[in-house]
From TrEMBL:
Domain (EF-hand) ranges: 26-61, 75-111, 122-157, 168-203, 220-255
Source lineage: Eukaryota, Metazoa, Ecdysozoa, Arthropoda, Hexapoda
UniProt xrefs under Pfam families: EF-hand_1, EF-hand_5, EF-hand_7
Alphabetical UniProt keywords: Calcium, Metal-binding, Repeat
A biological-process GO annotation: regulation of presynaptic cytosolic calcium ion concentration
Cellular component, GO, one term: dendrite
Source species, domain of life: Eukaryota
Name of the protein described by the UniProt record: Putative calmodulin
Organism encoding this protein: Corethrella appendiculata
CDD domains named among the record's database cross-references: EFh_HEF_CBN
Length: 301
C-alpha cells in the first residue's frame, strides 16, 4: 500500500503519532532499531552521511507524507545541523553517540535511567568496586545474568524497581548488550562496561599529568605526585590498595589502550608493579607511586 511505501521511505515516520505528529515513546527495542538503522557502520556514532540522513528523516517525518529530500537544501541542512548539534551534542565532538540520541528521543523513563546521564561515577576506584561486586563468578567478564543483576540494582537505587517486570529487565539487558558489547561476544569486558558506567574523569588525563608525563620526569613535581596519590587513596590510609590500585591501573591502561579486558589489566598490573620492585603486599606507597609515574614519564610517547 501507499502508506507502507511511505513508511519504508522514512524510517522515523513510524514512530510519530499519526494525528499529532509528535514522536511516540520508544521502547528499548525500538530505540535500538532506530540506533542500528542510522549507525550503519556500527562504530557507535551517528556521523557524517549517517547524521545527514537521520536529520533529514527526523525533520521530514513530522509531515504526514514525504517532502522530496531536495526541498531540504544543503544550506538548510547545514543550519539545521548546527542548531541540532548545539542542542544535543553534549561533548561537542560533531557526532551523536548513543547517550545523546537517548536524550533526544522520547524514551521509556526506566530505560532512560540506565544511561546515568547526570550521575557518572566519581572515579575508577568506584568503578572497580562495582566491577568486583557484579562479576560474581570472577570470570573477568560481566555476563548477561550479572548485567541483569546490575541493571536491577541500578533501577532499585533509582526507586523505580516496582515498575519493572522481569521481562522488561531481560529486554533492557539485551538492549544494553546490543549497545555496549562492541566485540559481540555476548558479555561485557572491562572497557565495554566502562562505557556503560562512565567515570566523571580519568584523573591521569588532567593536563598537568599529561604534560608532566609527556615532557619527562623533570616536569612532574612533588605536588603533582601528591595529588595523584590523594586522588586514589580514597580511604586516606596512606597506601593505594585493592580497588584503589586497580582503579589507578585502569586509568593508566586507558591512556594506552582503547579496548581492554580483565586479563589485560592483570598483565599490565604485573608489568607496572614488577618495574618498581613492588613488594607484593598488595599496596602502593607514595614512594612506589613516584617510581611508577617517573618510569612512565621516561617512556617514549
Amino acid at each position: 500500500t501507499k502508506t507502507h511505501i511511505e513508511k519504508a521511505q522514512n524510517f522515523m515516520r513510524q514512530y510519530r503519532d499519526p494525528e499529532s505528529r509528535e514522536l511516540k515513546k520508544l521502547s528499548a527495542n525500538q530505540f535500538m532499531d532506530v540506533w542500528s538503522h542510522y549507525d550503519r557502520d556500527g562504530n557507535g556514532f551517528i556521523e557524517g552521511f549517517e547524521l545527514d540522513g537521520f536529520l533529514k528523516e527526523f525533520v521530514s517525518s513530522a509531515n504526514a507524507t514525504d517532502i522530496s529530500p531536495e526541498s531540504l537544501s544543503g544550506e538548510m541542512l547545514d543550519e539545521l545541523k548546527s542548531c541540532f548539534m548545539e542542542a544535543y551534542d553534549d561533548n561537542q565532538d560533531g557526532k551523536i553517540d548513543i547517550r545523546e540520541l537517548a536524550q533526544l528521543l522520547p524514551m521509556e523513563e526506566n530505560f532512560l535511567l540506565l544511561f546515568r546521564f547526570d550521575n557518572p561515577l566519581e572515579s575508577s576506584v568506584e568503578f572497580m568496586k562495582i566491577w568486583r561486586e557484579y562479576d560474581s563468578d570472577n570470570s573477568g567478564y560481566i555476563e548477561a545474568d550479572e548485567l541483569k543483576n546490575f541493571l536491577r540494582d541500578l533501577l532499585k537505587e533509582a526507586k523505580k524497581m516496582n515498575d519493572v517486570s522481569e521481562d522488561k529487565l531481560i529486554e533492557y539487558t539485551d538492549t544494553m548488550l546490543r549497545v555496549f558489547d562492541a566485540n559481540k561476544d555476548g558479555r561485557l569486558q572491562l572497557s565495554e562496561m566502562a562505557k556503560l558506567l562512565p567515570v566523571k574523569e580519568n584523573f591521569l588525563c588532567r593536563q598537568v599529568f599529561k604534560e608532566g608525563i609527556e615532557a619527562g620526569a623533570a616536569k612532574l613535581t612533588k605536588d603533582d605526585i601528591e595529588k595523584v596519590f590523594s586522588l586514589y587513596d580514597r580511604d586516606n590510609n596512606g597506601s593505594i590498595e585493592n580497588e584503589e590500585l586497580r582503579g589507578f591501573l585502569k586509568d593508566l591502561l586507558e591512556l594506552v589502550k582503547k579496548d581492554y579486558d580483565a586479563q589485560d589489566l592483570n598483565e599490565f598490573e604485573e608489568t607496572i608493579l614488577r618495574g618498581v620492585g613492588y613488594d607484593k603486599d598488595g599496596k602502593i606507597s607514595r614512594k612506589e607511586l613516584t617510581m611508577i609515574l617517573l618510569a612512565l614519564a621516561k617512556l617514549p610517547p
